[in-house]
Specification:
8% helix, 1002 residues, 56 strands, mainly beta, 5-stranded mixed sheet, 11 helices
C-alpha cells in the first residue's frame, strides 16, 4: 500500500510539474469567412503577459500548459481558451455587432436595438455617475441629441427638461416630460440618487412614446433602477465623493468710481446728492477724493463656497431562485448664497425578485426618500444686483438696528434700504419632503418562452411640509420688517397604478412576432392645507401658528383633487428574417378630468435592415445599416380641465324716459381636453468600419393640433383658454460615436451629437397674435414665428453728435440729444411708433450640441465632455428696472461702455439717456445673445484590481478627480446663460463643482 501511495504521489507531482512547464503556443486567428485578423490581443488570463497577432493573423507566446488564453479585438466577441498542454491553438472569432444586439427598455417591455423603428436614446449608469449632482437630469445634459436641459444652481433644484421643443403654450406647467421609474409615473425625479440608476432611456418620437398615451406629448424618460442577478455572488460596493462648489463668471457690477461717474453724468441732482451723502457719512477715497471711500462688491459679500457630498453603499447578489439589490445613500449640497440655503437627502432602496416556481416570479421594488431643503430668499439675488456700491454691509453707528447692525442706503437718500442681508438672514424657508415608491408584481409563464402574464401594482406617496419663516428686523424707519410671519403648508400626493399585461412571443420560421396587450388603472389624489400666523416668538422651538398673536382667517387654505382613469393599450412587433420590421401600438385613455372622456393614440413604424441584404451582408465596412420611419399621436393631460369665469357688469338704459340701471351676466367657461400631438420621424441607425463608428440620424416634425391657447372674448374683453391652436416643432438630430483599441493597454472613444430645432406657431384661431408678459417687456406669439418671441424695436445705434440729430427728422421731432438711441424705422414713414416693432429673438435655441472623449491606458482613465447651444436670446429684465427706479446699481459692462462722448459707444446710451422714456422702449438693448459653450465635465481616475494585500485579495478600488462645469464661455451680461424661460430677473447661478471620489467593490 505504501508503495502504491508513493507511486501515485510521484505520478501527480510529475504531472503537475509538466503542467506548470512553459510551452510555446502558436496559432492563427481568422474570422468566420476564413480571413486573417491582424491586431488581435492574445494574453494569458490573470497576467499582463500577451502578444498581438501579425498581418497574417499569426501569433506565438509562452504560457503554462494549464493557462487560459484570452483573445480580444474590437468588433469581435472575446474568447477564453484553455491551453490543456496544446502547442497549437487556432481560433475562429465571431463578429459582434456592437450595441445593436443590446436590449433596451421600451414602454411596458424591452426590445433589441436592431429591432427598433423608433428614436430611443439610452444612457447608462457609468455616464450619469460622472456628474456630481443632486438630480439625475442634471447629469444628462449634453448626452442626448434633441434633449435640452437647463440647469438651476440652487441646492436640490430640478432642471428644466424639454424633449424636441415645446408643443404647448408656455407658462402653464405643461412642458415637462413623463418620467417612468420602474413602471411608476412621475412629473419629476428629484428624489432619485443618480448612482441607483441602471439605465435611462429617452423616448423621443411618437412611435416610442405613444404607448403612454395621454401623458406622453412632451416625451418620455424611462428609468430602470439598479438590480441584482441570479446566481451572482454577493457584491458590496461603495460610491462616494466630497467636493466644493464655486460660482464662476460672477457678474461684474459698477464699482464706486464707475457708479459716481454715471451719477454725475445722469443730469439728476438727486443721484449726485446721494453720492455726496455717502462721502459725508463714510468718507472720501484717498486715491480720488471725488468718489466715496466705500466700495462694496455685493456679489463678493453674498457668495460663498458651497460643500457637496454624496455617499452610497449597495449590496447586490442572487441565488438560483432569487436576486436582490439593497442600498442606502446620503447626499448633501450647500447653496452658494450666504444664508441658510442647503439640501440634504437620505435614500433607502430595495429590489427583490423571486422565482417562486418554474412558472411564477414575484418581486418588489421600494424607494424611500427623506429630504430637507432650505430655499434661498426669493429676492436675495435681485437685491444684490441693485445694491449700490457706496454703502457698506454693516453700520456700527446704527445702534437702533436689530438683530444685526446692518447698513442701509435709505439715509443716503435712496428709496429703499437695498442691503440684501436683512432679508437673507430673516428668511428661513424650509421644506421637508418625504417620498415613498412601492412596486409589487407577479409574472406568470403561461407557455414557456411564448406567453407571459404580468400584473404590477405601483403606489407613490409624497408629502411636503413647508414652513416659511420671515423674522422681524429693523434697520431704520423706512427699511424694516416689523411683523414676523409664519406660514405652514402641508401637501400630500397619492398616486396608484395597477397594470396588467399579456405578452406573446413566437417565431414561425423566418417570421418573428411579439404581441402585447394590457390595461392600466390610475387613481391620483392631492390634498393641501395651509395657515398663517403673525407676530410669533422668534425662538425656533416656538415657531408654531398656535404661538402667534394673530391668525388671519384669510390666510387659511384648503385644497384638494381626485382624478382617476382607465386605459387599454397594445403593441405588435413583427420582423421577417430580422430584415424587415413592422411596429405598431394603440392606447385608449379614459379620464375623469375632461368632459371628453376618451382619447385614442395610435402609432405605426417600419424599418429595413439593409445590412441583412445579400449585397451588403458580411461587409466589414458597413456591418449594420437600418432605415426606419414612424408616425404616431401623443397626448398631454397637463392642461387644466376647464377655464373661464362667470362675470357681471353694470349697464344703463332708458325705459319710459327714465334712466334705469341693471346688470348683465355672462358665462365664459370653456370645455378643455388634452392636447393631441402628431409626429413623423424618419431615421437611420448604422455601424461602420468594424463597428468602430456608430451613427444615429433623425428628422422629425411634430404638430400639436389642439393646443390650449388664450382666445379673446368678443365684447366682454379678457380671454379664455380654448383647445384651438396649432404649434409645430421640427428638427434634425445626429449622434456619432467612435471607439477603438490601439493596443491591449490603450483604448479611446470619441462622441459628438447635435440637434436643430424650429419652433413655430401655425394657427391662433384667427387671432393675429397672442401677447405674453408685461406691456413694458412684451413677448408675442405670431403665426410663422416661435412661441412667446421677444417683440419690440431694433436699435440702429446711438446718436453721436448734434449734427446727426439735426440730420434726422425723427430725432428733431422727439427732442433727442447725443447719447440717445436711434431706432430702425421699419416702415419708412418718418416716425417711430408701434408699427415699427419686430420680432427680436426667441429663448428657444435652434442648435444644441454635445460631445465626449475618453482614454484608457492600463489602469488610468480620462474622460471629458462639452455642451453648448446657440440661436437663443435672453431678456435682460434686470436692466429694465430703470423704468421704475433710477437709484439702483447697474452692471459694469454698461457702466464702462456707456455713451459718454462722440464715438465712445454705439451700443449703450448715455447715463442721462438711461433715465429717458425714449430709451426705455422694449428693444434689442434688453434682448441679449444667449449662446454659450461649456466644458461640461472632466474626470481622471485610477483603478486598482487583482491586487493582494496582507495575504488577501484587495477590493477593486477606483479613485477619481472630477471638475464639473469648470469653464463656460458666453457673452450674456448675467451670471449664467442658462435661463429656463429666457426671462432673467432672478436666476440662481450654476456653480463649478470640484470633487474627489472613491469607488470600492468587494
Amino acid at each position: 500500500m505504501k508503495r502504491l501511495i508513493f507511486l501515485l504521489n510521484l505520478f501527480l507531482s510529475v504531472t503537475l510539474l509538466y503542467g506548470q512547464q512553459s510551452l510555446t503556443i502558436n496559432g492563427k486567428v481568422t474570422d468566420t469567412s476564413g480571413a486573417s485578423i491582424p491586431g488581435v490581443s492574445v494574453s494569458v488570463k490573470g497576467t499582463t503577459h500577451g502578444v498581438v497577432s501579425d498581418a497574417n493573423g499569426a501569433y506565438s507566446l509562452q504560457a503554462s500548459g494549464q493557462a487560459t488564453l484570452v483573445f480580444s479585438f474590437v468588433g469581435y466577441k472575446s474568447h477564453e481558451v484553455q491551453v490543456n498542454n496544446r502547442g497549437i491553438i487556432n481560433l475562429v472569432m465571431e463578429e459582434e455587432v456592437v450595441g445593436v444586439e443590446e436590449v433596451v427598455v421600451v414602454g411596458y417591455g424591452t426590445q433589441k436595438v436592431k429591432d427598433l423603428t423608433s428614436s430611443i436614446s439610452t444612457v447608462k449608469s457609468d455616464d450619469l455617475a460622472k456628474t456630481p449632482a443632486s438630480q439625475p437630469m442634471n447629469a444628462l445634459q449634453g448626452k442626448v441629441a434633441g434633449v435640452q436641459i437647463v440647469n438651476d444652481g440652487g441646492p436640490g433644484n430640478s432642471a428644466t427638461v424639454r424633449i424636441r421643443g415645446i408643443g404647448s403654450f408656455p407658462g402653464m406647467n405643461n412642458e415637462a416630460p413623463l418620467y417612468v421609474v420602474d413602471g411608476m409615473f412621475y412629473d419629476n425625479i428629484d428624489f432619485l440618487n443618480p448612482t441607483d440608476i441602471e439605465t435611462m432611456s429617452v423616448l423621443k418620437d411618437a412611435s416610442a412614446a405613444a404607448i403612454y398615451g395621454v401623458r406622453a406629448a412632451n416625451g418620455v424618460i424611462l428609468i430602470e433602477t439598479r438590480s441584482g442577478s441570479y446566481n451572482q455572488k454577493t457584491k458590496i460596493s461603495y460610491d462616494g465623493y466630497e467636493g466644493y462648489q464655486i460660482d464662476q463668471n460672477v457678474l461684474k457690477m459698477a464699482n464706486s468710481q464707475q457708479y459716481t461717474a454715471m451719477a454725475n453724468e445722469s443730469g439728476s441732482g438727486t443721484e449726485v446728492q446721494d453720492v455726496l451723502n455717502s462721502m459725508q457719512k463714510w468718507g472720501r477715497s484717498r486715491v480720488d477724493p471725488n468718489i466715496p471711500v466705500t466700495n462694496t462688491d455685493w456679489y463678493k459679500q453674498v457668495i460663498r463656497q458651497g460643500q457637496i457630498r454624496n455617499h452610497s453603499v449597495g449590496i447586490d447578489g442572487g441565488t438560483e431562485k432569487a436576486k436582490y439589490s439593497l442600498g442606502v445613500n446620503y447626499f448633501y449640497q450647500d447653496g452658494t448664497l450666504k444664508e441658510l440655503n442647503n439640501y440634504e437627502r437620505m435614500n433607502l432602496r430595495s429590489k427583490v425578485d423571486v422565482k417562486a416556481t418554474n412558472w411564477l416570479t414575484v418581486g418588489e421594488n421600494m424607494i424611500f426618500s427623506n429630504a430637507t431643503k432650505y430655499i434661498d430668499a426669493s429676492n436675495a439675488w435681485y437685491n444684490t444686483y441693485f445694491a449700490v456700491p457706496i454703502f457698506p454691509v454693516y453700520d456700527l453707528t446704527n445702534t437702533a438696528a436689530t438683530p444685526f447692525k446692518y447698513a442701509s442706503a435709505d439715509p443716503l437718500g435712496y428709496r429703499n434700504g437695498q442691503n440684501p442681508f436683512p432679508g437673507m438672514v430673516s428668511d428661513q424657508d424650509q421644506q421637508k419632503i418625504l417620498k415613498a415608491l412601492a412596486t409589487i408584481y407577479m409574472e406568470i409563464t403561461v407557455i414557456p418562452k411564448v406567453l407571459t402574464f404580468k400584473s404590477t401594482y405601483n403606489n407613490s406617496y409624497t408629502q411636503v411640509n413647508e414652513r416659511v419663516v420671515d423674522l422681524p428686523w429693523f434697520i431704520d424707519n423706512n427699511f424694516q420688517n416689523p411683523h414676523g410671519t409664519l406660514t405652514k403648508t402641508t401637501s400630500s400626493y397619492m398616486n396608484q397604478y395597477w397594470d396588467n399585461i399579456l405578452t406573446f412571443t413566437k417565431s414561425f420560421g423566418s417570421h418573428n412576432v411579439t404581441l402585447m396587450a394590457g390595461t392600466s388603472y390610475k387613481d391620483e389624489t392631492f390634498q393641501k392645507l395651509s395657515a398663517q400666523g403673525v407676530d410669533f416668538p422668534t425662538l425656533p422651538q416656538s415657531w408654531y401658528i398656535s404661538q402667534s398673536l394673530t391668525k388671519p382667517a384669510t390666510a387659511v387654505g384648503d385644497d384638494g383633487l381626485h382624478q382617476y382613469g382607465f386605459s387599454y393599450f397594445g403593441r405588435a412587433a413583427y420582423n421577417y428574417q430580422e430584415k424587415y420590421l413592422l411596429y405598431g401600438t394603440m392606447r385608449a385613455d379614459g379620464s375623469s378630468k375632461y368632459q371628453q372622456k376618451w382619447g385614442y393614440f395610435p402609432t405605426v413604424g417600419a424599418g429595413w435592415v439593409v445590412s441583412e441584404e445579400n449585397f451588403l451582408k458580411n461587409n466589414d465596412y458597413v456591418p449594420f445599416l437600418k432605415l426606419r420611419g414612424s408616425w404616431g399621436e401623443l397626448g398631454n393631460d397637463h392642461i387644466q380641465a376647464s377655464d373661464g369665469a362667470r362675470t357681471t357688469s353694470l349697464a344703463l338704459t332708458t325705459m319710459g324716459g327714465n334712466l334705469v340701471s341693471g346688470t348683465i351676466a355672462q358665462n365664459t367657461f370653456s370645455s378643455l381636453k388634452w392636447e393631441k400631438t402628431k409626429e413623423t420621424n424618419v431615421g437611420l441607425t448604422a455601424r461602420f468600419l468594424h463597428n468602430r463608428l456608430s451613427a444615429d440620424i433623425d428628422y422629425f416634425s411634430r404638430d400639436t393640433k389642439n393646443a390650449a391657447i388664450p382666445v379673446n372674448i368678443p365684447l366682454i374683453g379678457g380671454s379664455v383658454l380654448k383647445a384651438v391652436g396649432t404649434i409645430r416643432n421640427s428638427g434634425f438630430e445626429c449622434t456619432l460615436n467612435w471607439s477603438d483599441k490601439i493596443t491591449d493597454k490603450l483604448s479611446y472613444n470619441v462622441g459628438a451629437n447635435f440637434a436643430t430645432l424650429k419652433n413655430q406657431v401655425r394657427d391662433l384661431y384667427g387671432q393675429p397674435y397672442i401677447d405674453y408678459g408685461t406691456a413694458e417687456f412684451r413677448q408675442r406669439s405670431y403665426v410663422g414665428h416661435p412661441l412667446n418671441a421677444y417683440y419690440g424695436w431694433k436699435i440702429a445705434g446711438v446718436y453721436q453728435n448734434q449734427a446727426q440729430i439735426n440730420a434726422d427728422p425723427i430725432a428733431v421731432a422727439n427732442g433727442l440729444i447725443p447719447g440717445d438711441f436711434k431706432y430702425v424705422d421699419q416702415n419708412k414713414d418718418g416716425k417711430i411708433d408701434g408699427s415699427d416693432r419686430v420680432i427680436l429673438g426667441s429663448y428657444f435655441p435652434n442648435l444644441t450640441f454635445g460631445g465626449n472623449i475618453g482614454v484608457k491606458y492600463l489602469n488610468f482613465d480620462l474622460s471629458a465632455s462639452f455642451y453648448g447651444q446657440s440661436g437663443n436670446s435672453i431678456l435682460n429684465r434686470r436692466r429694465g428696472e430703470m423704468l421704475w427706479t433710477s437709484d439702483g446699481n447697474l452692471d459694469a459692462d454698461l457702466a464702462v461702455n456707456r455713451w459718454h462722448g462722440d464715438g465712445t459707444s454705439n451700443k449703450y446710451p448715455s447715463s442721462a439717456g438711461l433715465l429717458k422714456v425714449w430709451n426705455q422702449k422694449m428693444s434689442d438693448y434688453f434682448v441679449n445673445d444667449g449662446k454659450f459653450w461649456r466644458i461640461q465635465n472632466v474626470q481622471i481616475g485610477y483603478t486598482l484590481k487583482n491586487q493582494s494585500w496582507l495575504n488577501g485579495n484587495f477590493p477593486e478600488t477606483r479613485i477619481f478627480l472630477t471638475a464639473d462645469h469648470p469653464l463656460t464661455h458666453f457673452k450674456y451680461q448675467g451670471f449664467t446663460p442658462e435661463v429656463a424661460n429666457g426671462y432673467d430677473d432672478v436666476t440662481y447661478p450654476v456653480p463649478a463643482i470640484y470633487t474627489i471620489g472613491l469607488n470600492i467593490k468587494f
